Amino acid sequence: MNYEAVIGLEVHVQLKTRTKMFCGCVNAYGGEPNSQTCPVCLGMPGVMPSPNEQAIRLTALSGLLLGCDIAPRCKFDRKNYFYADMPKNYQISQYDLPICLNGQMELMKECYPKDAQKDIQGVKQVKLTRIHLEEDVGKSFHFENCTGVDFDRAGAPLMEIVTQPDLNTPEEAFAFLSTLRLVLLYGKVSDADMEKGQMRCDVNVSIRPAGEKKLGTKIELKNLNSISGARRALAYEIERQKQALARGEKLVQETRRWDDDAGVTSSMRSKEMAHDYRYFPEPDLLPIDTTPWLDEVKRLVPELPMARKQRFMQQYQIADYNAGVLVADMDLADYFEKAAAHAPNPNAAANLIVNDLMRELGAASLPITQSPILPKDIAALTTVVESGKISSKQAKDVFAEMFKTGKNPDAIIAEKGLSQVSDAGAIEKFCDEVIAANPKIVTDIRSGNAKAVGALVGQVMKLSKGKANPAMVNEFLKKKLS
Amino acid sequence: MSTPSMDVRYVAQLARLNLSPDEAERFQAQLEQVLAYVEQLEQLDVKGIEPTAHAVPRSNVFRADEESSSLPVDEALGNAPQRLNNLFRVPKVVE
Hints:
The complex is a heterodimer of chains A (482) and B (95).
Chain A: E1 3-14, H1 53-65, E2 69-70, E3 73-74, E4 77-80, E5 90-93, E6 100-101, E7 104-106, E8 125-135, E9 139-142, E10 146-150, E11 157-163, H2 170-186, E12 199-209, E13 219-224, H3 227-246, E14 254-259, E15 264-270, E16 280-281, E17 288-289, H4 291-298, H5 305-315, H6 320-327, H7 330-340, H8 346-364, H9 375-386, H10 392-405, H11 409-416, H12 424-437, H13 439-446, H14 453-463, H15 470-481
Parallel strand pairs in A: 13-14
Antiparallel strand pairs in A: 1-11, 1-12, 2-6, 3-17, 4-5, 4-16, 6-8, 7-8, 8-11, 9-10, 12-13, 14-15
Chain B: H1 8-14, H2 21-38, H3 73-76, E1 83-84, E2 87-91
Antiparallel strand pairs in B: 1-2
C-alpha cells in the first residue's frame, strides 16, 4: 500500500536576551556549571518571579516574523511535573492564552537538503498553531550511577513554536527547521544553534494510506539534536511504521527516542503514562497586555530572507541561484550588499562572492565575517575587470593574492605589473609582428581555416607576456587577415 | 448542591504522596468539603465580568533585561544533599 506521512513539529527556541526570564542571572551558554543561578531560578521557597520585558517582546517579534496573530492579552500558567532538571517542580509556561496564535511560514527552496532540492514540487506553506513563552529547565548529565544537574540554563527564556501537521516528508521537516532558523536569525531573536541546544525539536509523526483523510496513530520523537538528525530520525521512523503496518501490527501512541549513532528509534513511554500537568494560572505573575507596546515591536520586523532574495534579483539583476545562496546567510547577504554598492556590475560581484570567495572561505574554514577580502575590494576587482584593465584570467590570480594578503586589487596589480594592455597601437604592433613571423599560418587562415587564428592569438599573448586584451587581439587579427 | 468529584488517590499520585487507605479516606472527605465550600462561589452572578486570575486590575509589570548578581557556585550548591563536582547530584534519571 502507498502511505503518506503526516508530520508536525514542536520547536523550542532560546531567546537572545542578556538575562533569564524571571531573574537577573545571565542567559549565556557555556559557563562553569551552576555559576549562573540565584534563589529564583533555583526555585527556593518564597522567591518571586519578575518577567523579562525583552523576552516577551522578542516572542511577539517572532510571532510577527511568522505571520502570527499577537494576542492583545495573555498570561502565564504553571505546568506541574516532577523532574530533576526542574527546580520548582513546576515550569512557568503559557497554557490557554499564548502570546502568538496561528501563523504560517513558506519553506525556502535553499533550505531543503542539498540532495533533495531538485525534487521540490511547488512552494510549501506550513501553518503554525501557536507560539508561547516559557522558562527553560536545567541540563542533565547522565553518568553510570547517577545524574548531575546544571541549572545555568534553568529559567532561560524559551519559546515553543508549534506547527500544524502540514509536513509530509523528512526533507520538508528539514526545510522547515532550516527556514525557521534563518528567519529567527534575521529577526535577531535567537542564535538558534541546535548544537548548543538553543533550538530543540520534538516531532509528531504518523502515517496513513495516501488519500485517506483520517490521521494515523501519532508517535512522538525526542532527542533530535540537529536538523539533519531530525531528517534521519523521520526517515527511519516513517519506514518503521510502514513495515509494522505491512506486518499487520497495530501502532500504539507513544513517545520514542532517536539514537543518532545507532540510527534507530526506541520506545520511551506509551500513552497510558501520559502526563497530567494540572495547569493553573500563575498567581505570582500579572497578565500581559501587548497593545501598548506592540507598535514598537512591529518596527523591529526586518526584511525577511524571502523578500530579500526577491529584492536582490530585481535591484541587482542577479540570478535566482546566487540570490538564494547569498540570503541563506545573513552576514553573507550583508557582505554582498556592501560590495554591490560599489560595483559597476553587481552580478559580477555576486559571482565572485558565491563562487570564488565562498570556496576559499570554505577551504580556510573562515566565516564571511572574517573574510580577508573587504567587500569594497570585491567591488574594486570587478571594476578593474569591467574596465578592461586586467583580463578575467588575471583577475583569478589577483583574487588569490587578495585572499592571501588582504591587499586591495589596485595595489596587487601595480606590484605585479599585471595591468592588461588595451592600448590599440601597442596591440596592433604585437599583431603585426606575429603575422610577419608566421607566414604559413597566415596562408592557412586566408585559405579558409578560420580556426588557425587561435594559434596567432596565443603568440600575441605570449609576446605581450599575457597582458594584451584578448578580445582586442582577436579583433585586430581577424580584421587584418580577412 | 452536588458534591464535586475528585479522586484523592489520583491527586496523591500526581503529587508523589503515599497515602494509607485510612488517610485516603480521611483526606477524600476533607478535600470534598473544601471543594464544596469553594463551590459556593458558583451561586454568584458573574455575567459580564471578565475572567481573571488576579484581584488587582494590573498588567505589564516587567523587569528590564538587566543583569543582577548570581550566587557563588558553592552557595548555589549549599543545600544540595549530594554534589558531583559543581553539579547537583541526583539518582540516575532514566530517559
